[in-house]
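Deliverable D2.4 — example input (structure tokens):
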């Protein structure tokens, strides 16, 4: 699953982005990968590991909702319909 969010462009500043990826890992667990920064610049990446897909999806939704409250808008979403 992938969710890509972005802030609206302001004056001369480039928009900020926030991307969420859910992937199964090789150790029978799941990983939530978060990447954020300014468009066109190097961003930051954080990985959180979870035992189940359910836990990972709940964490993903929580992060997504937090970012939506900060002014980000979902630009692209692929995967689970749960993310609507």
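Example output (designed residues):
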């Amino acid at each position: 699953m992938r969710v890509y969010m972005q802030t609206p462009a302001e004056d001369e500043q480039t928009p900020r982005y926030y991307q969420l990826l859910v992937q199964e890992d090789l150790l029978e667990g799941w990983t939530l990968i978060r990447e954020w920064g300014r468009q066109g610049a190097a961003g930051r990446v954080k990985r959180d590991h979870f035992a189940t897909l359910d836990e990972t999806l709940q964490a993903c939704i929580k992060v997504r909702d937090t970012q939506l409250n900060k002014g980000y808008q979902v630009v692209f979403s692929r995967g689970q319909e749960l993310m609507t």
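The domain at 2-83 is CATH 2.20.140.10 (q64v53_bacfr protein fold).
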